[in-house]
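Case study 2.
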Amino acid sequence: MDPQALAWIAIVAPAVVGLVIGRGWVLVLPFATVPSFYLGLLASWWGAGVGDGWEYAFGLCLSLSFLAAAAGTALGSLRVH
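Prediction:
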């Protein structure tokens, strides 16, 4: 699978889970999905590894994933049960 597609999945998946579940514990998911994605890149499981400045991309991806999870959780908690 394309590493860029996997990066988007690592960003969007916690948001979708937060939207569906609507619980605060979902905010820890980005701290599992994004590092797992980058560990796979470093091990060359997908893609050709990481390049220069990958630490900045990691920080951006983690930040986006956390913010998306927070937004999804907020919207999920507003649903009428």
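The radius of gyration is 14 Å.
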